[in-house]
Amino acid sequence: MNVEEEDIDISQDEEAGLYEHYRIVTDPGQSLMRLDKFLSARLPNASRNKIQIGIENGLITVNEKPAKSNYQIKPGDVISVNLPHPPRNEELIPEDLPLNIVYEDEYLLVVNKAAGMVVHPAHGNWDGTLVNGLLHYINIGLPVGKEPLRPGLVHRIDKDTSGLLLIAKEEVCMMKLAKQFFDHTVERTYYALVWGHPEPANGTISQRLTRSPKDRRITEVTQKEEAGKHAITHYKTLEKFSYTTLIQCNLETGRTHQIRAHMKWLGHSLFSDEVYGGRAVMKGPSFNKYKAFVENAFQICPRQALHAKSLGFTHPVTNERLQFDSELPPDMAALVDKWRKYEP
């Protein structure tokens, strides 16, 4: 059985025409298993809850007939996953988008990405991404490496994380830069506002990370040696406020949501990080006035308070050591200033 990787949403309830996105024929040796459990293990980026809702809405059929979530699949069953929109044509379209170019030469460029911009196309975000803008700006093909939908990308940051990104403009350059990341010779510094006061104030988190089996959006720490990936984050306290702390994080590895997951594990989720528990009053009194202060702070910076502040690497052609720094974006700068002025 072969399933293409796509971030799918099969929870939609629409009466429009349906298009088959997946057809799965179970193996001759397939053992009995619930339909929802079977699909959650095989469809990329589709939670079991979404699959159950899709089944209830008639978007999933077995042998061309509606089925229930607890249906026990059998060898030779034909399972169809249907969605209200046709399968996406994975063609990258250049778009004229505003880009903050910090540095550029014939081999590479450094971009200061705004929070809210997706880095590369994927389901639900096929346009308006940094890659779409880069293709228009450069007006030539970008090196694709092993991932055609992520041309030029040597590394990535989350949609709602702002800051510096390194882009390769030709193949050899991309390979050499990728090796620097692999060898941990690239310096990456992030600023984050976290709940509480980390103890010790400065330290290193060395904990393996894996995708949560309960929620695929979340990366979490695992104690199983055979699971997850090795991850190291160095952090340092920059400034303490009443109930939050501005910290600096330096990545030795670059795992998905590494800082966000490591700081949650430490007990200090990033401020306003809804996915990792930071968009709730985690520290401080229960007074209504304080709660109103925090809610206002959430409105000032409605995304995780994380910024990729500086980036240092060796130029793959000239061998010159390059270092770039950026200011905190307005939303995060205003948030830090608000906490700085707060008096309990």
Structural class: alpha+beta
Classified by CATH, the class of the largest domain is Alpha Beta
CATH topology of the largest domain: Pseudouridine synthase
Assembly form of the protein? single chain
- Total strand count, please? 17
Domain count: the total is 3
SS element count, helices: 7
Low-confidence stretches: 1-16
- Separation of termini? 60 Å
Overall pLDDT confidence: 87
Order of helices and strands: EEHHEEEEEEHEHEEEEEEHHEEH
CATH superfamily of the largest domain: Pseudouridine synthase
Rounded to an integer in angstroms, the radius of gyration calculated over CA atoms is 23 Å
Task: Please give the CATH architecture of the largest domain.
Answer: 2-Layer Sandwich
Strand composition percent: 25-35%
Biggest beta-sheet profile: 9 strands, mixed
Query: What shape does the CA trace take?
Result: globular
Percent helix, as a range, is: 10-25%
In short:
This protein is α+β, with helices and mostly antiparallel strands. It has 3 domains: 19-83, Roll (Structural Genomics Hypothetical 15.5 Kd Protein In mrcA-pckA Intergenic Region, Chain A); 88-183, Pseudouridine synthase; 184-344, Pseudouridine synthase, CATH 3.30.2350.10.
Please give a structural write-up.
- The protein has 344 residues and is α+β, with helices and mostly antiparallel strands.
- The protein folds into three domains: 19-83, RNA-binding S4 domain (Structural Genomics Hypothetical 15.5 Kd Protein In mrcA-pckA Intergenic Region, Chain A), CATH 3.10.290; 88-183, Pseudouridine synthase; 184-344, 2-Layer Sandwich (Pseudouridine synthase), CATH 3.30.2350.
- It contains seven helices and 17 strands.
- Strands 7, 8, 9, 10, 11, 14, 15, 16 and 17 form a nine-stranded mixed β-sheet that branches. A four-stranded antiparallel β-sheet has the order 1-6-3-4. A two-stranded antiparallel sheet has the order 2-5.
- The model is unreliable at 1-16 (pLDDT under 50).
